[in-house]
Specification:
- The chain is 32% helix and 24% strand.
- The protein has two helices and three strands; from the N terminus they run βαβαβ.
- It is elongated, with a radius of gyration of 11 Å.
């Protein structure tokens, strides 16, 4: 089975020191949803991954 990166979506739960770089790496080739319960981390995610295909959320 072949996967088309344009159709895939990866979800990263926890955008700390491991999750955020992981989200950035995946975002280079596919869409990413990043989730964290900490609002400060979620807003930092928006700044850190500007221009990449990452949606950051706390809910």
């Amino acid at each position: 089975m072949k996967h088309n990166p344009d159709e895939m979506v990866v979800c990263i739960v926890g955008l700390g020191y491991v999750g955020l770089p992981l989200a950035e790496a995946f975002a280079r080739s596919t869409s990413v949803i990043g989730f964290d319960i900490d609002v400060k981390i979620e807003s930092g995610c928006r700044t850190a991954v500007g221009g990449l295909k990452v949606r950051c959320s706390t809910n």
